[in-house]
């Protein structure tokens, strides 16, 4: 049996008679081959434009997120870019904060808080992130807006695609893709601008003189945006995004999701505006199909909760418009919970059941982590020190009967101002730092300093003895203590 991808439902396969069947002539196997369809052909979705409360919220978040994304790299903080992740120098600048690789714990904290935020918001109100702030949704909205402005709304786009190629269609298609490509390329350049100073990068890009890695990532991220937002769209949400698959584990019957009120809406059917639906044995749903036409993933919300639903609420906006025109109450499709729909709860009862134990636990942990991260940043020492013993010279006797060990200290100034560090040693009787005891560092500079530590000869028994370096910001700044050991040979 051969299997090829073609449109149409799978066909039943008839059994092949035995080659030596006495009831009939010998039949060649090739004549019994049947073609079956294993995969349904994907149909292009033409979302219809919609206006309403949730559409305004969605576009508000599109503007807010993109204003931050595109604008943040251009903000200056003193003599540098306000937000810059300088990988080559291994320094991350976030306004007045300078982070080093040793500050990886802060990145971990941010990622944990972000993941917990996703769990919390999903438990409360479903896929709010997907419907309003996910980059895939945001850029798909931008690309579809460009598409509507150039090719028209749903019916016009369908007619254009189904028509023969002509100059008007060619111009519209090429202009649309040109605009898509420009937005995608600017997005790629902005993304790289968080890792390379964007003002220098912009000049280099205009002159086509970017470095190989900068050029690669600009094109890579640009083409990813162009492909995902321009072509794949809902396919990313339905098949590529893992969140769509495990969201069900975070939902329960008290989670706010986009729902269709079956009790009120069924049975569906068209009718005149003046007709009494109850006299006709109909519900409030007029079966207009607009909720399907505006859905960016092409589902019918009237068929119940589906993993493809991203919670954008476009169907709520368009259904409310129809209800107003029919003089019916709004809310046939609305944000609600399964329990509320099944038990007929009021809005107050829905809100009361949102504050259930799992939500309260998530909220408590979430707030605790945020407070801990903020407190850690506030109490963070404005410099860092790493101590490494000089293994080329374990110990030696110097003048005045002193025994000496040599150490290398890496000092990192994590501030935006010049600082002077004073180095001393404590923990062993008679221990002292010989030679240079002060090191001056420019803003956000790191430097290795060679430090000699002396103790009186025969003051300690042979072996390793712990002590501490104390590094102080002169004149009266914070003090950082770092442990080390002093080696006494036999």
Give a structural overview.
The chain is α+β, with helices and mostly antiparallel strands and 490 residues long. It has three domains: 1-41, no CATH class; 43-380, no CATH class; 383-488, Immunoglobulin-like, CATH 2.60.40. It is built from 16 helices and 18 strands. It has helices spanning 53-71, 104-125, 128-133, 135-151, 154-162, 167-192, 198-206, 212-232, 234-240, 243-246, 262-265, 290-293, 314-325, 338-343, 347-354, 357-378; strands spanning 2-3, 35-36, 76-77, 80-81, 83-86, 91-94, 97-99, 257-260, 333-336, 383-389, 396-398, 402-413, 419-426, 432-434, 438-441, 446-456, 463-473, 479-488. Strands 10, 11, 12, 14 and 16 form a five-stranded antiparallel sheet that branches. A hairpin with a 2-residue loop joins strand 3 (76-77) and strand 4 (80-81). Helix 2 runs antiparallel to helix 16 (357-378) and helix 4 (135-151) runs antiparallel to helix 6 (167-192). It is elongated. The N and C termini lie far apart (84 Å). The relative contact order is 0.09. The model is unreliable at 1-24 (pLDDT under 50).
* Total number of domains: 3
Number of strands: 18
- Rg over C-alpha atoms, rounded to the nearest angstrom: 34 Å
Helix content: 40-55%
Low-confidence stretches: 1-24
Structural category is alpha+beta
Alpha plus pi helix count:
16
In one word, what is the shape?
A: elongated
Give the amount of beta strand, in percent: 15-25%
**Mean residue pLDDT:** 88
The largest sheet, given as strand count, sense and whether it forms a barrel, is:
5 strands, antiparallel
Spatial separation of the terminal alpha carbons = 84 Å
């Amino acid at each position: 049996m051969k299997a090829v991808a073609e449109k149409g439902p799978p066909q039943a396969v008839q059994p092949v008679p035995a080659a030596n069947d006495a009831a009939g002539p010998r039949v060649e196997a090739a004549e019994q081959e049947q073609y079956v369809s294993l995969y349904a052909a994907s149909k292009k979705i033409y979302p219809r434009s919609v206006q309403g409360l949730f559409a305004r919220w969605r576009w508000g978040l599109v503007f807010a997120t993109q204003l931050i994304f595109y604008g943040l790299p251009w903000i200056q903080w003193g003599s540098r870019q306000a937000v810059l992740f300088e990988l080559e120098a291994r320094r991350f600048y976030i306004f007045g904060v300078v982070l080093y690789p040793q500050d990886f714990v802060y990145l971990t904290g941010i990622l944990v808080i972000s993941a917990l935020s996703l769990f919390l918001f999903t438990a409360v109100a479903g896929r709010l992130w997907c419907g309003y702030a996910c980059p895939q949704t945001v850029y798909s909205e931008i690309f579809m807006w460009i598409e509507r402005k150039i090719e028209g709304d749903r019916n016009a786009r369908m007619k254009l695609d189904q028509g023969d190629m002509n100059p008007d269609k060619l111009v519209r298609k090429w202009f649309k893709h040109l605009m898509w490509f420009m937005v995608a390329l600017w997005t790629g350049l902005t993304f790289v601008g968080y890792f390379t100073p964007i003002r220098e990068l912009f000049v280099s890009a205009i002159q086509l003189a970017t470095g190989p890695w900068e050029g690669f990532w600009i094109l890579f991220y640009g083409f990813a945006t162009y492909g995902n937002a321009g072509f794949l769209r809902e396919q990313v949400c339905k098949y590529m995004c893992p969140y769509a698959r495990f969201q069900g584990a975070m939902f329960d019957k008290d989670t706010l999701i986009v729902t269709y009120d079956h009790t009120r809406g069924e049975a569906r059917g068209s009718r005149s505006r003046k007709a009494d639906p109850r006299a006709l044995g109909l519900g409030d749903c007029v079966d207009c199909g607009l909720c399907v036409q505006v859905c960016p993933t092409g589902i019918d919300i009237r068929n119940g909760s589906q993993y493809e639903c991203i919670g954008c609420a476009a169907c709520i906006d368009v259904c409310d418009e129809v209800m107003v025109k029919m003089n019916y109450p709004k809310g046939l499709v609305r944000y609600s919970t399964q329990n509320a729909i099944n038990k007929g709860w009021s809005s107050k009862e829905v809100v009361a059941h949102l504050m259930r134990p799992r939500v309260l636990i998530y909220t408590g942990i979430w707030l605790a982590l945020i407070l801990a991260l903020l407190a850690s940043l506030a109490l963070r020492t404005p410099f860092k020190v790493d101590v490494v013993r000089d293994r080329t010279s374990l110990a030696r006797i110097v003048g005045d009967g002193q025994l000496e060990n040599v150490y290398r200290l890496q000092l990192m100034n994590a501030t935006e101002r010049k600082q002077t560090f004073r180095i001393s040693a404590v923990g062993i009787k008679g221990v002292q730092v010989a030679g240079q005891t002060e090191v001056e560092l420019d803003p956000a500079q790191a430097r290795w300093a060679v430090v000699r530590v002396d103790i009186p000869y025969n003051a300690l028994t042979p072996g390793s003895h712990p002590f501490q370096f104390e590094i102080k910001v002169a004149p009266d700044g914070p003090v950082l203590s770092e442990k080390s050991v002093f080696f006494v040979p036999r």
